[in-house]
Specification:
single chain, mainly alpha, Arc Repressor Mutant, subunit A, three-stranded antiparallel beta sheet, 72% helix
Length: 139
């Protein structure tokens, strides 16, 4: 009898649409926490307030706010940021993600980290292949 691996169990806890959204739009747990915090009130937050609430420096909060805006999830209003998804469908997916995160925090976090780990591995592998190519060329 096959026993599903932890990564498979994590993926089963989330709908395919939420999984695709997380993979495409949420590069870190900090981004997710910022998004869900902004969504929870609907109000504009200063990046300083956001950083204080997430326990990150202001410069990190600004980067999170900028990244979420680029993804079409928030808008920047000067020094403030507000949850404002670009479409109603995106808002529905974020609502589903919020509910999933409440029920399956570990699984959602594992999905985010697995994507980040894979990207880091591919990045490192590219350098290893390049180093191997360079060393072969110098022989």
């Amino acid at each position: 009898m096959d026993v599903p691996c932890l990564e498979s169990l994590a993926l089963m806890a989330l709908s395919p649409e939420v999984r695709r959204f997380v993979i495409a739009k949420i590069p870190s747990v900090s981004h997710l926490e910022a998004l869900l915090l902004l969504r929870s009130t609907g109000a504009a937050w200063s990046t300083h307030q956001l950083g204080a609430r997430l326990y990150v420096p202001d410069v990190v909060a600004e980067r999170l706010a900028d990244d979420l805006q680029v993804q079409g999830l928030t808008v920047r209003l000067g020094e403030n940021v507000q949850y404002l998804p670009k479409t109603e469908r995106v808002a529905q997916i974020v609502d589903e993600l919020a509910a999933s995160y409440t029920r399956s925090l570990v699984e959602v976090s594992q999905l985010i980290h697995s994507v980040t780990d894979k990207k880091a591995r591919r990045f490192a592998d590219a350098f290893l292949m390049r180093i191997d190519d360079d060393s072969e060329g110098s022989r």
